[in-house]
Specification:
It is a single chain. By secondary structure, this protein is α+β, with helices and mostly antiparallel strands. It has a single domain, classed as Gcn5-related N-acetyltransferase (GNAT) (Aminopeptidase, 3-Layer(aba) Sandwich). The strands form two sheets. The protein has a seven-stranded mixed sheet, sandwiched between helices. The protein is globular and about 40 Å long. The model has no long low-confidence stretch (mean pLDDT 96). Bound molecules: coenzyme A (COA). The site of coenzyme A has 19 residues, from strand 6, helix 2 and helix 3. Coenzyme A binds next to strand 6, helix 2 and helix 3.
């Protein structure tokens, strides 16, 4: 298993896009009312014998950075944490002060995972996913454990 920065390397593009579509319905995501093209973001991939089994996508803007997608296809093996560490280290090396992430109210696992990583809840945007869904109708009405997806939870890590 290896962690790669695929910049300038198209080998994993199709697999990565398939992983993103499987998770988010599309390679574009909406957060806090904005569209993001994940294929144009900074990223790290976890690759096992040529198979992409994890990915983190993030952007840097000004002095702050934001994780826009984190996916692990082999859960509880440390992949999520390793990808977060790579992204945080890369952002720190580029002088960023904060790393943010947005998850949704249904995703208790992600909320727990990010707090275990050291992130703190910063903002709750009630009913923000209703806005996102108007922009991207592919967003399902219910998410983890059948819970209605309604609110955005934003967490922050001081770098
Ligand atoms: C959230 C997500 C990225 C976590 O990925 P992951 O690869 O399972 O993360 P890790 O393996 O690093 O950590 C998960 C747990 O496994 C544990 N773990 C890590 N290595 C382990 C090992 N070798 N053996 C047993 N447990 C292990 C970690 O300690 C952690 O446990 P904790 O929750 O009690 O702290 C993953 O569940 C996922 O892809 N979810 C769907 C998409 C999503 O919701 N993304 C986030 C919103 S953007």
């Amino acid at each position: 298993m290896e962690y790669v920065n695929p910049e300038g390397d198209s080998r994993y593009r199709e697999q990565m896009n398939a992983l993103l579509r499987e998770a988010w319905g599309d390679v574009n995501v909406v957060a806090h009312g904005e569209w993001f093209d994940l294929t144009a973001c900074d990223m790290f991939l976890c690759v096992d014998f040529g198979e992409v089994i994890g990915a983190v996508h993030f952007i840097v803007t000004g002095n702050d950075a934001e994780i826009l997608s984190l996916l692990s296809r082999r859960e509880h093996a440390g992949i999520g944490r390793a990808l977060m560490r790579l992204a945080a280290d890369a952002c720190r090396a580029r002088g960023m002060r904060c790393l943010r992430v947005v998850t949704t109210n249904d995703n208790a696992r992600a909320f727990r995972f990010y707090q275990r990583f050291g992130m703190e809840l910063e903002t709750v945007r009630l009913r923000q996913v209703d806005v996102s869904r108007r922009m991207k109708p592919l967003i399902p009405l219910t998410g983890c454990d059948g819970i209605p997806i309604r609110d955005e939870l934003q967490l922050v890590l001081k770098l």
